[in-house]
């Protein structure tokens, strides 16, 4: 394979129809303009999809890259993309036992169970309603990209429950190919969130701390996650408090779609 390109279309819109795209070119085939051709194809596909699905809203293409990948940065800027958001890639070694906070009275901490899948989706949509660029996920999109995806690891995913309501959650993932390539078994925390009405009680720290503690017990050597540098919930401070440090930065670019 020389390269690939993929378009992730939104199933709902809050303010702007943001079409996320991604792709890569094999290192041996770079610097030949293949990436630009793939991105132009993605832009065209995003525009066509936008005209069919949400023409009443403004539309834009979003693409992200690490700030150290100079070729990708130059390509996106050359195609008219503008910087719109910064994200930190954070990691923490999993070598020592991790203490977790006490569970608040009236709440329960449970390992992820499919019986709570829909409640977790609803909680995630509610928790991320005030996050930049986030749109609610319908059941099909949630299943395919979150709890039904191959890397998802329910055994290292935890929920904080108030009755049958998911108040907070932290979901773990593992990419086996990355482990084989690097020799490091990494637990990637793909989603962490707390419903707004439950914030300020340490529930995200409880869920995430339990994921990390379970990761230590099950043989993971490192944990990683990504965070919006301007997160409105103070997530960066939470992660730093659990030992995470910044190992890289990604930039999200956007290009307005012409209707």
From TrEMBL:
Keywords: Acyltransferase, Transferase. GO terms for molecular function: acyltransferase activity, transferring groups other than amino-acyl groups. It holds the Pfam family Acetyltransf_1. PROSITE patterns: GNAT. Residues 1-99, 107-259 form the N-acetyltransferase domain. This is GNAT family N-acetyltransferase. It comes from Kribbella sandramycini.
